[in-house]
Amino acid sequence: MRHIIRGDRAALAAIAIVLAGCSATAGSQTPATPDDQAPKAPRSEQRDSHQNPQGDRTAKTRGDAGDGSGKADPAAVRANELGAVPVLMYHRIMDEPETVDDRTPREFRAELERLAREGYVPVTAREFTSGEMDIPAGTHPVVLTFDDSTPSQFRLGADGRPDPGTAVGILLDVAERHPGFRPVATFFVNADPFGEPGGRRTLKWLDDHGFEVGNHTLKHSVLEDADDAMVQWDIASNQWLIDKALPDSPVVSMALPYGSMPRNRQLALTGEYGGVRYRHQGVYLAGGRPAPSPYSADLDPGAIPRIRSQEATAEEGAYSSSAWLDRLADGTAERYTSDGDPETVSFPREQAHRLAFDHREAARPY
């Protein structure tokens, strides 16, 4: 199969209470800990938790993306699997936006409707970076990502179903109205995701329904200002919490809070603290432009750009989702168009120089 993995509240109360008294210092070797203890925070940032140390994380492939099994003439559908992919970035969905990152439910629904009309098919960040985007010929992948795990994005009602006014509820409704528009997304979570202590109920629902859970650090820290030990603690501690809720779903995607890159860039992709190892196949920035194709030599898995969801008339509107979707639609920016065949990478012959070395055998130029 065509894929290359590029770069292969209750619990936290315990973290705040128990680890506060620990004496580990940054840069010192972490002593062996019982299986129910979380990694100790370095220096003054120590916290405690109940941790089961994890080994290396490897990608777990979920179900197929869907209907992309039919082969088509690449030229007939104008396939270009070296084109750009919009990775959209969302935060809060609220009736009265307070920051440039917020969107109203109406605005969010309108953007999803536009994507569906224009032939986009949602894929997860995991599917994107692994190259497992099995979508129909002539359609375009889009990655919907949500930062900060707020209740406006997702919460469950007493009946165990998503609140229809949340981002997930709206996405499910739009997908029901538009067959082929997959109701999937990636949620980059912090401590107490979606306002639920530990997040076990909410994270499990998302995972069970095809959504991806990614890492956004425990404390939503500015990683550029942190030393190497603190960077790894903040990422590993959050991964440990996700592991407790989803022990069978490896965390392979991370979004940098504020788009702030650690001074040691490699630590965003892979690291270890207190016996918890993490390895991400994709690290996502805060915004700016569409991402290169996963088959393009231009893709840097350690710094994948995203696009803030907003109108072109808003602040910094030139870099908004509305503006970029316009450019992708009119050809000003070349967008990824699927050939419908998960075994090949199709593109106009004149773009052959953009193909990553690892994907030469799957190349299907025309």
Could you characterize what this model shows?
It is a single chain. The chain has 366 residues and is α/β, with parallel strands linked by helices. Helices cover 22% and strands 13% of the residues. The chain contains eight helices and twelve strands. It has helices spanning 11-18, 105-117, 125-130, 167-177, 200-208, 228-245, 266-269, 321-330; strands spanning 87-90, 120-123, 140-147, 186-189, 212-215, 253-255, 270-273, 276-279, 282-284, 307-308, 345-347, 363-365. Strands 1, 2, 3, 4, 5 and 10 form a six-stranded parallel beta sheet that branches. The protein has a two-stranded parallel sheet with strand order 6-9. It has a two-stranded antiparallel ribbon with strand order 7-8. Helix 4 links the parallel strand 3 and strand 4 (186-189). Helix 2 packs parallel to helix 4 (167-177). The protein is globular, with a radius of gyration of 20 Å. Mean pLDDT is 86; it is low at 1-35 and 44-68.
**What is the N-to-C order of secondary-structure elements (H for helix, E for strand)?**
HEHEHEHEHEHEHEEEEHEE
Low-confidence stretches: 1-35, 44-68
Strand content: 5-15%
Distance between the termini: 21 Å
Number of helices: 8
Rg computed from alpha carbons, rounded to a whole number of angstroms: 20 Å
Please state the overall shape, judged from the principal axes of the Cα atoms.
Answer: globular
* Helical residue percent band: 10-25%
Biggest sheet record: 6 strands, parallel
Overall mean pLDDT: 86
Total E-strand runs: 12
**Content-based structural category:** alpha/beta
